[in-house]
Amino acid sequence: MRKTVSLLGSTGIIQDGMDEELPENAWTNGRNVRFRNGFAERFGGHDSVFGTPSVTPYWLQPYSKSDGTKFWIYAGLLAVYVNDGTTGTDITGPTLTATSANKFTGGVLAGNAIMNTQADVPQFWNGDTATNFAALTGWDANHRCKSIRPYRNYLVAMNITKTGVNSPHMVKVSDASNPGSVPTTWTPANTNDAEERDLAETQGVGVDSLSLGDVQICYKADSYYGLQFVGGDLVFRTYLISDKYGMLSQNCGAQYPGGHIVLGIGDVYTHSGGPPTPILEGRMREWLFSSIDTDNRDKCFIVTNPRKDEAWICYPDIGQTVCTSALVWNWRGDTFSVRDLPNVLHGNTGQVALTGLDTWDSDTDPWSSDATLWDTSDFSQAEMRLLFASSDTLIFIMDQAWDYNGVLTTVCYLERQGLSWGDPWALKTLKSIFLRIDAPTETVFSITFGSQQQATGSIAWQPPITYTQGTSLKADGFSTGRFNAIRVSCSEAVPWRFKSYDVEIEMRGMY
Length: 511
Fold this sequence. Notes:
The chain has one helix spanning 285-291, and strands at residues 2-5, 29-31, 33-36, 39-42, 46-49, 59-64, 70-75, 80-83, 88-90, 105-109, 112-116, 123-125, 134-135, 143-151, 154-162, 165-173, 195-198, 206-212, 215-220, 224-231, 235-242, 253-256, 259-263, 268-271, 277-278, 301-305, 310-315, 323-330, 335-350, 385-390, 394-398, 412-419, 428-438, 444-452, 460-461, 465-468, 475-481, 483-490, 497-507. It is mostly beta strands and 511 residues long. Among the domains are: 2-42 and 410-507, Jelly Rolls (Sandwich), CATH 2.60.120; 46-77 and 251-400, no CATH class. The strands form eight sheets. Strands 5-31-30-29-28-27-26 form a seven-stranded antiparallel sheet, with no helix packed on it. Strands 1, 3, 4, 33, 37 and 39 form a six-stranded antiparallel sheet that branches. Strands 2, 32, 34, 35, 36 and 38 form a six-stranded antiparallel sheet that branches. It starts with a strand and ends with a strand.
């Protein structure tokens, strides 16, 4: 009997379901393979940019000047630099005392980069490489905050500590800024818009905030609120949206076209200013939270990759102290995949002022196997690109070329277990698989068959079979059980896209 399985990228990886009940085109495991437009395809590689940073970068912030000049700011624990794509410049201002336990927040307000370390006074930079970061105007030198973010022409700070006394529910809003300037005061008065208030209806501490349309969403550990400019004597209003879902740590939320995606305590959810919609249940929730290192859960963060319609939920694997994996959600197809990360501390998305990275002179791949096109580059300054700061003292641009910063043998694989082919009681022998894969000629794949007698039993895997693109017609092997399993892997640094496959199965009855 021949069976066709198509649309291999329409369901993605599902770890929490019962394998035997999943659609045939779902995957039960995988690594470094994403799902887009109905296909399963290899994740792009990554490459280092801006040379070797002068400090280990803990925070990245894109910055564009009105004349079109593009910068990336990167901050270490004790110093701050800005890079224009060619040259790095030290713009460290007031003394920094951050530690690896501090998470940076900030953004850009009225042409000024804003940075907060938790340990130091919030700072700003005006975009002039001849000047340094400076203490935020009007901010009390004895005050600290856990998070600071732009909202309209204001700044919003959360979880305030005044002269050593912490007010975990407090939100401070600055006075309005003038064009090109930062706010001049944070002290509430009848003559300005500055305000401070407690979000005290819930017990969780303040964590972070993000803009959503004309509202600033203020996240606590167990809830989230709306803060909205209304003008008049009231100036701002705050209102509780959810008292069941909050945010795990700073930077654990991101904007995407549908609103916000947020990593909370024990769940990941989306919302557009209203009630939360969990997105992991029945698919990846149990798997994700059993994969995160508990002692370093505060190192998690979320960043988007707009050019691929993805949100990356970055986390440290068990035993790791920095983020080594990402659960990747494609919001257009509502699918999940998993990608290895190069020991990352923070990520951000923006335009990058670099020339094409894949040039004729720099391309060392053999002519017979090079997968890139003549006189083209996978880099465009017009696109928003995802960059990561690594504890390896490097900054990486993602989806660049196909190797992982020079490593050519990264294993990318997909695995499906629990295939009953419509009859969970009968024995079947999986004999052959016919692959429909777009890949360069001579690309080598490894195909492994397996089987189970019981849906919850262990898999008996057979020796791997070599499948060579452009040469092999099919992969032949034998594996007998009530449930079949298939694993497809490739370690070559080339692009490939998996469309569908046929299998040859021999039905053998009940015993």
